[in-house]
Amino acid sequence: MDVLIVGAGAMGRWFGRTVDADLVFADADPESAVAAADALGGRAVPLDGDERFDVVCLAVPMRLAADAVADNAHRADAAMCDVTGAMGSPVAAMRDHLPDRERLSLHPLFAPHNAPGNVAAVADEPGTYTDALLADLDAAGNRVFETTPEEHDAAMETVQAAAHAAVLSFGLAADDVREEFATPISAALDELVASVSGGTPRVYADIQSSFGDGADRVADAARDLAAADDEAFADLYRRVSRGDDVPGDSAPSDDDRDQTDKHDPIE
């Protein structure tokens, strides 16, 4: 099986290391394609070429996924997959441009240097080649689980857009205080801020533009907390403690009002 990987960055290289295939790289930066090919024992080809391959894998930024499908569909003899991080847009584009070929969308839910880990998968049109790719991911120690484009993209609003927005918001709001004042909670948040802010801004911007409702929900929740009186704050706190998903204007129940506090404010 020969695989053209479009995008020679960290995720494209991770995919190349993980699958058992003859590797070919193409990138907007030809030198990056050559470097990836040299590192993984493959070869480099022009980004705008017409050579065909068994499988084409797209490892491009989310905002470019749909265009990359259209630009490279003619190069996929049997199958196309993507590791772009979104699923709705690339899956829809693959259905349009490769209706008679195998289609697979993958989202490794980790940075490449943290592999292996959980990998979300939409086998939109499974077959021999996509089955082989999934088997390679599994053999490398990843936990591959099935989802749908709709479920995946809705989940990303929480686990990526909202999570990143909450962490970055704390980083923007926090004052610089002496280390001795840190609590376990604030220290953990400081570590998360360092982790998120140590990445690439464009990647995080793509996540926010693709799954922006998550950040909006964080902003709405922060406003609710800031405006709450004691009773309303206690209700919001208890809802979080129980893991409830209740509309913001719901009134606290009698059980909520009677519930005794059970968390120490400094852990």
Task: Walk me through the structure.
- The protein has helices at residues 10-18, 30-40, 65-72, 88-97, 128-139, 149-173, 184-197, 201-210, 213-227, 230-242, 254-258; strands at residues 2-6, 22-26, 43-44, 53-58, 76-82, 102-108, 118-125, 143-146.
- It is α/β, with parallel strands linked by helices and 267 residues long.
- It folds into two domains: 2-147, Rossmann fold (3-Layer(aba) Sandwich), CATH 3.40.50; 152-244.
- Strands 3-2-1-4-5-6-7-8 form an eight-stranded mixed β-sheet, sandwiched between helices.
- Helix 3 runs parallel beside helix 4 (88-97) and helix 6 (149-173) crosses helix 8.
Q: What's the layout of helices and strands?
A:
Blueprint (H helix, E strand, L loop, with lengths): L1 E5 L3 H9 L3 E5 L3 H11 L2 E2 L8 E6 L6 H8 L3 E7 L5 H10 L4 E7 L9 E8 L2 H12 L3 E4 L2 H25 L10 H14 L3 H10 L2 H15 L2 H13 L11 H5 L9
Parallel strand pairs: 1-2, 1-4, 2-3, 4-5, 5-6, 7-8
Antiparallel strand pairs: 6-7
Separation, N- and C-terminal Cα atoms? 54 Å
N-to-C order of helices and strands: EHEHEEHEHEEHEHHHHHH
Q: CATH topology of the largest domain, anyone?
A: Rossmann fold
Low-confidence parts: 246-267
CATH evolutionary superfamily of the largest domain? NAD(P)-binding Rossmann-like Domain
Which sheet architecture does the biggest sheet show?
A: 8 strands, mixed
Domain Prephenate dehydrogenase nucleotide-binding: 24-121
InterPro entries: 6-PGluconate_DH-like_C_sf, NAD(P)-bd_dom_sf, PDH_N, Preph/Arog_dehydrog
Organism: Haloferax marisrubri
Region (Disordered): 238-267
